[in-house]
Amino acid sequence: MSAALNSFLTPTTSQDNRVAATETDGDPDAYPRNLDDQHARLVRWFEEAERESIVPRAQSEQARDYKNCIQWTGPERKALDDRHQPITTFNYVSRKIDLLCGMERKARTDAKAFPRDPTEDDRADAATQALRFISDDNDFGVIRSTVYENMLVEGFGGVLIGLEDDGKGGANITYEQAPWERIWFDPHSRSVDFLDARYKGLAVWMDREQAEELYPDARDVLESSFTEHTLSYDDRPGNVAWTDTTRRRTRVLQGFWSERGFVWEASFTRSGILVPPAKSKFRDRRGKSACRLLLQSAYLDRENHRFGAVRDWISPQDEINKRHSKALHLLSVHQVIAEQGAVEDVDKARREVARPDGYVEVRQGLKFEVERGGDMATGQFQLLQHATQEMQASGPNASMSGTDPRELSGRAILAQQAGGMAQNEPLADSLRMWSRRVYEMSWMAAREFWTAGKWVRVTDDLGSTRWVGINRQITLQDELAAMPQEQRASVMQRMQPPLQPGDPRLTQVVRVENDITDLDVDITVEEGMPVPTMQAEEFQTLTQLASVQPGLIPGDVLIAASSLKNKDQLLERMKEHQQQQQAQQAEQAPLVAAHGQAIVAGLQAKADADKALATERIHNTVHSIAEVHGMHNQLMQPPDPPSAPGTSGAPEMTPEMALEHHIADLRVKHAAASTNEAKAALIARQAGHETHRAVATIAGTHATAVNTARTAATPIPQPQPQGPPA
């Protein structure tokens, strides 16, 4: 027996277990009935449960044997051994159970707490992390898978929730899987979740020395326990006495029952009560007294017998095994029809006929015929194929496990897988409801018994670890330490008198972080068996559309449309990642803006210089034009008197020729001025282009900064763990 279960059976009081209710009047937690009468009632309940469960327990044992490949009875095995035929077993039962259990393991997710008040989102998240911590601390996933296998095979299973001192004035919540063969319950219960059962409990074997050590005040009860006998619940299924004289063991029973609006529990043997009745310390989600032994069954028949999925597979499994064995036998034996005296030695003839190369001499004229069993074997094989098909069609099929040898289309495989999963959804739903009851009771216990502050370390499915404070008292010093330096200094100065190092006010509690003592939440277990549907094809179409036009469909939309198990966490991580990117961009925005402004200022200065140069050239051109006009005016004045005859010199230019010459020079200078004006306009346009390039450079610099931040950041940011304060 485990240490945890021993602690549940350990007495919590040293008072005499024969004390009657009249001696404890005034105590609201005292049991209101006479203890001797209650002990007799507990024994009667247990013996009733034992008698009524003989047949269903034998069926549960048979189902477990079939799961463990024990499918031939003793006489059948002896018959096969006598005719020297190998025992062949094709264990379809084990394959189906392993497949369902494997699918349950793949579908595991944690519970999630939703607030009942829109202002309680943060505390509801703390409740979710607290439930995750309790689950991880007790390996609830493994316990749940074991209970699910018990439901599939034996028909029922459960867990025992307990409390363990945490050394801080509170208690930790513990889980222990309750073996199905130790469970006893009200045989008149009709509910698959046992909520209508008046009583239920556990039967545990305990060595005499161990029992006497745990119950020192009940030695007389233990002494008399070794003298009475009845049917019993063993460590394994079977019928033994209340006591085991070989190992000096006795059976200690833990009983839970409802009475007067409360659930009570006590430990007892056939001879007396070991631990007096006490009220259950656990509550259900409505705050009512509840039993900490949470059970769940798969199916019930009309006689209230609980059974699992294996019962439906036993008959086809027997047919498969026996028809294959029969066909093998018919192929290896022969029938001989002969007249008397046809052979000299009958036994020798039998041996020779049985041999593949046998030789038999027959007297002439006498009948001697050997008939093979091939025709009958063919019929057996045909029936074997039909039985195999029926077995494969029941429960999880070959398509679900990926072992269907037929060549089927993808749509046909999806349809078969969905059909197979639909048959098992009721069992998955029962397991989900049972898991929610476990989480709800654990949450109510955490609210009541997590009295001191607690740090919860949580590692999610994506591998990140973080710390969450539950009922953590925040002092003034902690509150100030979380403030920015300027705000902290301002607050300290405003306090009268101002705070100084070592001030006793720093140790005062100002608030409680994630106080769960009064928090009401709705707990859901959202996982289910993975059912392949047309959603996979629709998601594939969506991804193809996104690849055709990148950016059309955001990444968070694709994740939300997928069937990823942890897509909620992925979406939350993406949201956090986007917020971090926005924060980084906000921090880099002043630097990027300053850099862009510097580039624009430089380009603007260059444009101003180019404009000034163009203006200067325009002025020079205008000045040149003015000079040309002055020269033209001089030329238009009357000419000087002619020289005296015989005076040497160049031939005189007529006024018309001079006018044409000056007009040509003027046109040349006008062309030069137009060229300079065009160059000035070109420089102005280039300055405008430089300004546009500056704006483009700013945008490119901003995009480069964003891409650099994205490259430096992790695709899914890992939050830094925050440890408990030193």
Compact overview of the structure:
Among the domains are: 3-55 and 141-308, no CATH class; 570-638 and 653-712. It is 51% helix and 14% strand. The chain contains 20 helices and 19 strands.
Helices and strands in order:
Layout: H1 3-9, H2 35-52, H3 54-67, H4 74-82, H5 92-106, E1 112-115, H6 121-137, H7 140-153, E2 156-165, E3 171-178, E4 183-185, E5 199-207, H8 208-214, H9 219-224, E6 243-244, E7 249-259, E8 262-268, E9 273-279, E10 293-297, E11 299-300, E12 306-307, H10 310-332, E13 334-338, H11 346-354, E14 368-372, H12 374-393, H13 398-401, H14 410-449, E15 454-459, E16 465-470, E17 472-475, H15 476-481, H16 485-494, E18 509-513, E19 521-524, H17 535-548, H18 555-561, H19 567-635, H20 655-712
Antiparallel strand pairs: 1-19, 2-3, 2-10, 4-5, 5-7, 6-7, 7-8, 8-9, 11-12, 13-14, 15-16, 17-18
General form: flat
Which structural class do the helices and strands define?
Answer: alpha+beta
Q: Approximately how much helix is present in the residues?
A: 40-55%
How many E-type strands?
19
Compute the gyration radius: what is it?
Answer: 47 Å
First-last Cα distance: 40 Å
The largest β sheet comes out as: 6 strands, antiparallel
What would the average pLDDT be, to the nearest integer? Answer: 77
* Weakly predicted, low-confidence segments: 1-24, 229-240, 528-534, 711-726
Strand content: 5-15%
* SS element count, helices: 20
Write structural notes for this entry.
With 726 residues, the chain is an alpha+beta fold. Among the domains are: 221 residues, no CATH class; 129 residues. Helix content is 51%, strand content 14%. It contains 20 helices and 19 strands. Strands 4, 5, 6, 7, 8 and 9 form a six-stranded antiparallel beta sheet that branches. It has a three-stranded antiparallel beta sheet with strand order 3-2-10, sandwiched between helices. It has a two-stranded antiparallel ribbon with strand order 1-19. Helix 5 runs antiparallel to helix 7. The longest helix has 69 residues. The radius of gyration is 47 Å and the shape is flat. The N terminus and C terminus are likely disordered.
